What does this fold into?
Amino acid sequence: MVRIDGKGNGTALVRVRNLDKKYRRGNEEIHVLQGLNLDVDAGDFVAFMGPSGSGKTTLLNLLGGLDVPTSGTITVAGDEITKLAAAKLTSWRARHVGFIFQLYNLIPVLTAFQNVELPLLLTKLSKSERRKHVETALAVVGLSDRMKHYPRQLSGGQEQRVAIARAIVADPTFLLCDEPTGDLDRKSADEIMEIIERLVREHGKTVLMVSHDPRVAERAPVVLHLDKGVLMEAAKAGGGA
Amino acid sequence: MKSFRLVWANLRRKKIRTTLAIGSFTVALFLFGLLAAIRTGFRGGTDAAGADRLDVINRVSLILPLPFSYRDRLLKVPGVAAVTYANWFGGVYQDERNFFPQFAVDKDTWFDVYSDYVISAEGRDAFMKDRQACMVGRALAKRFGFKVGDRLPLRGTIWTGTWEFNIVGIYDGNRPEADTTGMFFRADYLEERRVFGKGTVGWYVVKLGSPDDAVRVTKAIDALFDNSPYETLTQTEKAFAASFVKQMGNVELLIMTIGAVVFFTLLLVTGNTMAIAVRERSGELAVLKTVGFSDLRVLRLVLAEAVLIAGQGGIIGLALAKLVIPGLSRALPMLGVLYVSPLTFATGLALALAVGAAAGLLPAIGAMRLRVVDALRRI
It folds into this structure.
């Protein structure tokens, strides 16, 4: 169940209260997010839509602990991340968040296997355990046969699948996807969305996704609109918002 | 280090740039090895000088002789255990470019006072029996292919004419950097043939009963010959050797200055290379931070890259120096024994790593402070 009225019962996986984010550009103060409330339960798949500059990516960055709000609180699985110091926030991110970016952001000098392994280098897993996890993650995205390929040897869709494998390999609490299909053709975009849907459906992952493409956003059961920093419901068939 | 593969992969990303960066360290450390070896060569006499030996020379100048009669008077000075002497010969072997030092020495005492020269019993025996006998150093023998039994002719420059010697032994040093580029022959052979300077020696070497007596014996010897036609200047062998080095100017300062300039330039060049590398990769560093790499870990990654470049270049440069310097030492014997000691190697490597770390520090701090959100926005 996804709510944006701030009246959730406290059992939500992600709980956002009165979130404000302001930037200063020269003398001008930009109010990106205004008093935003959000409750997302485990296993939910939420898409955020909105025009450029509406605050979608900023919201995602705040939820992932990459940025800090001007005011308000974000609580994930009981941890109030807005209270965490930078170092603790980094280790929290390693344990709880999987990021998927529009431009994949793979390390070009590492193979698909090595890219996926990156988050596991921060764990205490042995080499063989890491290998097992990476192979599983790559199998989930259907790239078992591309493990030794470098990003330049993969198509855009395959690169994004490696990025998804990297995002899920450490089994994070939730996935944050920032325009995951924004740089792909329609066919590849559909394949990526199928994988994301499967992660929600079959693996119970919680996914929060930003997209400007209505066709992509509509694949999520819940679509929320952000406009000038304010979150609005957009009820749809099968959705709970 | 689990992230080593990432560091290594980053180094291979721009192969030409990495090779050039490693190359600058190679050149710098080669130069360091060379300068350190030259410094060792210049200081060779100083380092090898025995603490229990004094050199007695003519107070006016080293090139002026001292009477042979001083030997017995020196032996009577309390604290003196033994006395030997030597003359500079200055002969030419085939061509003036084939310079090597030759000394006419007292056959009975020289190798006792200089027990740091290692010679065989047969060689010593032959040296005592043959008036024309000579001992050549291992490095000298290698340079000209001399072997025991060879006849060695020298053209005299101070005492003219052709002087013939029989090589009866090859001496070694008791340390790897010992000077074995010289030749010793018997002073009685010189005394017999020379037409001037008879009854004199070039300098005396006094062996002390105890090194603690050095100051007292030094004063006693010079006081003994005060107001004589041949006043003496007595100094420890170390001071004597050092005065030779001083005649060449402040070589040490020159070497240190060149070294400092080279390393400072290296610091700037490598620092710039690392800064460019980090700037180019700010997006990737942001991704690493996004997946949970801490600021400190990112700092270590960048530092490790710089140190690895420095380490590789350092090892190659020092190894090259070690390889090339023996040849250089043979080609330029006037520089003394050039030698890259293990200490020089270790010091050079430590310097290279320190410069690498210093060069990588600012870019690494920049990477550490990189804000993920800003860097991702720039991608």
About this structure: Chain B touches chain A through 24 residues (CB under 8 Å). The CA atoms of residues 37 and 344 of chain B lie 8 Å apart.
